[in-house]
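Sequence, please.
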C-alpha cells in the first residue's frame, strides 16, 4: 500500500491518499487539544496508543455486526481505512454525567443516568460544534432521516457493546463521541474510538483514564492511556 499525498490534517490525525481511490491511511499524532482548541499540548506516544486501541475496538465492533471504516493496522501510528464521505454530525452517548451535560443541565459529575442520553453536535469548528437536533440536521441537509435512523440505531448498539466490553476489563464507559460516513451507499462508523473520544473511569476507584487528565491537568496522562491499552488488549 503506497502512501500518497496528504488529504487532510486535523487536530489529532492526518489522512493520506493511497494507490487505491477507495482507501486512505489514517495517521495518529501525539498532539492534543481541548476546550475548542484553546488548550494545546502533546501526549507522549498517544498516537501509537490510540491507533492500537481504535484498531482493537473497531475489530471487536465488526465482529459484533457494526460496519466500520477500519481495514487493517499498517504500522505503529497508521491504519488503513475506507474513504468515507463524513457526515458532519458528531454523535455523543452518555451513560454517566460529566463534561458538557453536567455544565448544561446542572447535574453533578458522576450521576448514573436513568437511560443513555444521545446528543448531536454540528461538526463545525467555526461555530464551535453547537448542540443540534434532528430538525437542524434536516434543514442543513447533513443527512437524510433514513441515514439518521441508522446512525442512531448503530450508536445505541455500539454503546451496549462497548459498555459491556469495558465493564469486563474494569472500566466504566461514562460517555463517548462517534462519527459516521457514507461508503458505497452504506453508513459506516468512522474516526477513532480512544481515550481522546471516550470518558473511561476505573470501576473500583473512579480514577479518570482518559483525556480529562489532559483537559484538567491531572497528571499521569500517558500512564492513563497506556493503562486503557493494556486493558483493551487483555
Ligand atoms: N468528545 C470528543 N470530541 C469533541 C467533543 C467531545 O471526542 O469534540 C467526547 C469527549 O471526550 C467525551 C464525550 O465526547 O467523551 C462528551 O464530551 P462533552 O460533550 O461532555 O464535551 P467536553 O466535556 O469534552 O467539552
Amino acid at each position: 500500500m503506497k502512501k500518497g499525498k496528504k488529504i487532510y490534517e486535523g487536530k489529532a490525525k492526518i489522512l493520506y491518499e493511497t494507490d487505491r481511490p477507495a482507501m486512505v491511511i489514517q495517521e495518529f499524532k501525539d498532539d492534543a487539544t481541548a476546550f475548542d482548541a484553546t488548550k494545546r499540548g502533546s501526549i507522549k506516544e498517544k498516537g501509537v496508543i490510540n491507533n492500537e486501541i481504535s484498531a482493537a475496538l473497531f475489530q471487536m465492533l465488526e465482529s459484533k455486526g457494526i460496519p466500520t471504516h477500519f481495514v487493517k493496522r499498517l504500522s505503529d501510528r497508521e491504519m488503513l481505512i475506507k474513504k468515507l464521505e463524513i457526515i458532519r454530525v458528531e454523535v455523543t452517548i452518555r451513560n454517566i454525567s460529566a463534561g458538557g451535560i453536567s455544565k448544561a443541565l446542572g447535574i453533578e459529575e458522576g450521576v448514573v443516568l436513568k437511560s443513555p442520553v444521545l446528543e448531536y453536535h454540528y461538526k463545525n469548528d467555526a461555530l464551535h460544534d453547537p448542540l443540534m437536533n434532528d430538525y437542524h440536521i434536516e434543514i442543513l441537509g447533513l443527512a437524510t432521516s433514513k441515514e439518521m435512523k441508522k446512525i442512531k440505531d448503530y450508536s445505541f448498539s455500539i454503546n451496549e457493546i462497548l459498555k459491556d466490553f469495558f465493564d469486563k476489563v474494569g472500566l466504566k464507559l461514562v460517555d463517548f463521541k462517534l462519527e459516521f460516513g457514507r461508503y458505497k451507499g452504506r453508513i459506516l462508523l468512522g474516526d477513532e474510538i480512544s481515550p481522546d473520544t471516550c470518558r473511561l473511569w476505573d470501576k473500583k476507584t473512579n480514577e479518570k483514564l482518559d483525556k480529562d487528565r489532559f483537559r484538567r491537568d491531572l497528571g499521569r496522562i500517558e500512564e492513563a492511556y497506556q493503562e486503557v491499552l493494556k486493558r483493551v488488549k487483555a
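The chain has two domains: 3-82, 85-220.
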